[in-house]
Design a protein that fits this description.
This protein has 732 residues and is α/β, with parallel strands linked by helices. Helix content is 21%, strand content 18%. This is Glycogen debranching protein GlgX. It comes from Methylomonas defluvii.
Length: 732
């Protein structure tokens, strides 16, 4: 028999389980609790506790906190709580249930080994099917690591799923689908040239949170937008979660990425939790904090308001909840060295306790003004599931926004829609109409064409309709307005002309994205034509439909090479990474405007209001005297056009990109570029061409753009471009 551990009254702060000399302090905040018990377990899957510790109000209660110090308790001990109090009244909305085993909301590591969601949804004891937290020693040797400080205008974000990135056998990593497995792919990320990874949710989430028909198919919550433990890395991404190694394994990943010059942005889900609505499971907040954590109906507090489409909405601007969320974010920056956060359905965080939209929500401003988060990137998905759309109007000034307006108009332009070139030009220039009047910057917009939610880039040009029947919801789930084009045939086809056009369109999308002002975001796998077979909502597909097949990186090496080179092209042009908006006015130090727009005739502005035009061209002036200028022509029409190039005194144009060409002629490195022998170029249908220029006195026999570009790039980065592989290009 285990000898009971000796106890002291303990301290109300900090919350959670904290190791100190002589034992462990436990503290949990529950304002309306009447009885509280701490249960200790030997293992993560132990059914019976080795000790039950009743807390006494006279000794173990301070204001809202219940606390106890357990002497000589070893690291690695698992624990949970039982809390009793008023239950489920219309007036209070409290949902205490002393039979439910509760997770510590401040737990640093948890186990879902015994978890059964159904048991937590119905009345009765669920101790045999509940999650447990573990006492961890959070000491770690960071080896001098600190969060990176890459300027946003230089950022290139790469959105990836930790599990799906390496779970396919073709990934050939030692620990597939884990933080450690991702470390093995860092050389690939470095060679690709991105500056940040944006990780789909890695806070502990409920994999069983899916609709019944989906669960009946053996599917589970794969994306992770069902968080329950905001301080714990997800155990499913750990190699040895039963040993409580969550923190160490995630820190190892962050440290390794930082050594490669790559920042870490976490996709965080504070708008709702996995406890869902009134019929959802009791995991932690429902049974601990009562009615304060969620938005409820003012007339009947048993009813949850749902602005997220997930059953509940976090009461983010309640003082206690605001403090919880900000403390959590500061923890991930301070203790885990995270470089930024992307906030899922962030507009839900701008709602008050009655659900109304606040002009100055305390949480949003609290995050912006936190000194610990001052150098942390903040990115909002500036809408929620109830029609609140705040792109261009999200509260605060330091926040970036997923630019859904950019995504939509660029998709339409690429598929050949007419009458939109004015908006296309505005989006390429950083969406000044959305941000400039607020004194915000081009970096306020996170530009993207695809993300995890929707078609992959290959599927965007292979399907007109979603094909989601595998999800078990009769194809009702997922967005039906994809703004896609199948190029003539729905799905796979052997037709070589369609196959070529689809690859060309993928290259077009990458080219527009990486030529646009603002912060570009790429979806992992798009660079080698990952497909989900037309499924635009793979949230439940933890299988080969979602996992990246790394054999495709070899099969589509030409597209991968194109993307690598386009990223390099962006990096060698500071003019593409301006911090301020373009003006269209003549620059002080040179005889040309910062940007000039052209239609079918050079130096003649496009017919912005022409309802039929699908051609757009621009000349972008270099910022430095050794940096080449850029000229781009985008022809999304069905016809080829011979278009003249603008004259720049003392310079000649060299072809850098032609998406209609096959590899390696589709993108030409500076060392291989040659000056054009004529002042015009034939632009094929549905293609984009890009030119760089060079100082020279004659067309024939003059220096190529290589020496000038390479010299400038060397000054900019300290690297000799012609002597180094792409893997050596720095990310800041």
């Amino acid at each position: 028999m285990h000898k009971p551990y000796s106890l002291k009254s303990g301290s109300p702060y900090p919350h959670g389980a904290r190791v100190s000399e002589g034992g462990v302090n436990f503290s949990i905040s529950s304002r309306h609790a009447t009885d509280v018990e701490l249960l200790l377990f030997a293992e993560s899957d132990s059914i019976k506790p080795l000790q039950v510790i009743p807390l006494q109000k006279e000794k173990n209660h301070t204001f809202f906190s219940w606390h106890v110090f357990v002497e000589e308790l070893p690291v690695g001990t698992w624990y949970a709580w039982r809390i009793d109090g008023p239950a489920n009244t219309r007036e209070s909305g409290l949902r205490f249930d002393r039979e439910k085993l509760l997770l510590d909301p401040w737990a640093r590591a948890i186990s879902d080994k015994l978890w059964n969601r159904a048991a937590a949804c119905k009345p009765g004891d669920n101790s045999q099917h509940a999650m447990r937290a573990v006492v961890v020693d959070d000491r770690y040797d960071w080896e001098g690591d600190t969060p990176l400080a890459i300027r946003s205008e230089k950022a290139i974000i790469y959105e990836l799923h930790v599990g799906g990135f390496t779970r396919h056998t073709s990934a050939k990593v030692k620990h597939p689908g884990t933080f450690i497995g991702l470390i093995e792919k860092i050389p690939y990320l470095k060679k690709l040239g991105i500056t940040h990874v944006e990780l789909l949710p890695i806070m502990a989430f409920d994999e069983q949170d899916v609709p019944p028909h989906t669960a009946d198919l053996g599917l589970k919550n794969y994306w992770g937008y069902s968080t329950h433990s905001f301080f714990s890395p997800h155990p499913g991404y750990c190699v040895t979660p039963e040993q409580g190694t969550h923190i160490r394994e995630f820190r190892d990943l962050v440290k390794a990425l930082h050594k490669a010059g790559i920042g870490v942005i976490m996709d965080v889900v504070f708008n709702h939790t996995s406890e869902a609505g009134a019929d959802g499971p009791v995991i932690n907040f429902k049974g601990i904090t009562g009615n304060s954590f969620y938005l409820t109906d003012k007339h009947d507090k048993r009813i949850f308001h749902d602005y997220t489409g997930c059953g509940n909405t976090v009461n983010a601007n309640h003082p206690l909840v605001t403090n919880f969320i900000i403390s959590c974010l500061e923890y991930w920056v301070r203790e885990m060295h995270v470089d930024g956060f992307r906030f899922d359905l962030a507009s839900a965080l701008a709602r008050g306790e009655d659900g109304s939209v606040l002009q100055d929500p305390p949480l949003v401003w609290g995050i912006e003004l936190s000194e610990q988060l001052a150098k942390t990137k903040l990115i909002a998905e500036a809408w929620d599931a109830s029609g609140l759309y705040q792109v261009g109007n999200f509260p605060g000034y330091r926040w970036g926004e997923w630019n859904g307006r950019y995504r939509d108009v660029i998709r339409r332009f690429l598929r050949g829609d007419t009458g939109i070139i004015a908006e296309v030009a505005t989006r390429i220039c950083g969406s000044s109409d959305l941000y400039q009047h607020q004194h915000r910057l081009p970096i306020s917009g996170i530009n993207f064409v695809t993300c995890h939610d929707g078609f992959t880039l290959k599927d965007l040009f292979s399907y007109n309709e979603k094909h989601n029947t595998a999800n078990g919801e009769n194809n009702r789930d997922g967005c039906s307005n994809n703004l896609s084009s199948n190029c003539g045939v729905e799905g796979p086809t052997p037709d070589p002309a369609i196959v070529k056009l689809r690859r060309q369109q993928v290259k077009n999308a990458f080219t527009v994205l990486l030529l646009s002002h603002g912060v570009p975001m790429l979806l992992a796998g798009d660079e080698f034509l990952h497909t989900q077979q037309g499924n635009n909502n793979c949230y439940c597909q933890d299988n080969e439909l979602s996992w990246l097949n790394w054999d495709k990186a070899k099969e589509n090496a030409d597209v991968l090479h194109f993307v690598q080179q386009m990223i390099r092209l962006r990096k060698r042009h500071p003019a593409l990474m301006r911090r301020n908006f373009l003006t269209g006015r003549k620059m002080e130090d040179k005889d040309m405007a910062d940007i000039s727009w052209h239609g079918l005739e050079v130096d003649q502005p496009p017919r912005w209001d022409d309802p039929n035009t699908r051609i757009l061209a621009f000349t972008l002036a270099a910022l430095g005297k050794d940096e080449p200028d850029l000229h781009a022509i985008m022809n999304m029409s069905d016809s080829k056009h011979n278009l003249q190039l603008p004259e720049v005194e003392g310079k000649s144009w060299c072809l850098a990109v032609d998406t209609a060409q096959t590899s390696p002629k589709d993108i030409i490195e500076p060392a291989e570029q040659k000056a054009l022998s004529r002042p015009w170029y034939t632009v094929e249908p549905h293609s984009i061409v890009v030119f760089e220029n060079t100082h020279q006195t004659g067309i024939e026999g003059g220096d190529s753009v290589a020496k000038r570009s390479a010299s400038f790039f060397s000054k900019l980065t300290g690297i000799k471009l012609l002597d180094q592989p792409a893997t050596e290009i720095p990310t800041s």
